[in-house]
Model the fold of this input.
Amino acid sequence: MISFPTEINVTSVNVMTSDEGGLSTEQVVNLAMDRIIRVSDTAPPAIKEQAEAFQNNIRQVLYHYIELARREERGTIANRMAKAGQEEMADLVRRI
Amino acid sequence: MAITQAMCTSFKQQLLTGTHDFTTSTGNTFKLALYAIASGGKSSTTATLGASTTAFTTTGEVASSGTYATGGGTLTNVTPTTDGTTAITDFADLSFTTATITARGALIYNSSATNAAVAALDFGGDKTSTAGTFTIQFPTADASNAIIRIA
Done:
């Protein structure tokens, strides 16, 4: 008899939620980090250490630029609101 | 009444009859609906999802809120590929914003094929957003982690 052992699998998803607004920068960074680099628990110590150092570096860079992007986007939105005569709303957006 | 993580048995059979097409853009439309247990669904219903689920059901589905509308959100397919000897497919992450939702799990189903069930997902506990964002991130698309794998 010839058999072909085959497995069909489904993996768990990661769920992230927020209250009273969108995801925080830390949460967005965590979502991105899961896609960029994953360090195996079974990796040799030297490689693991190097990978974790790289991971921390990427995390800091991502955090900085996501924060910057959010701030710049708020600046653009506030500017458009102010131009449309919504000074009070523009000020609220600027202070987020 | 529970939600058990599983690939639906009917989906496995339908793979052999060519029911599902996961190709980006030209493939079928797949959706993800959110479910609650302990009477947390709309109209106080409770979800029972698992390997024996054959199609989308409204029983136990969470109510519409924010950008979540009953029936669930449409997934963006990633064309199936291979990693070594394993065939894999993936979806883009899905987010519902300004939503007040408590969900324990989800069902992926094919709305192009009479809402045939694909997989039941167990979140491992209640996940709640309050006037916020509810994001589902799919795992890395490789032979060990992809959301759907045939090895």
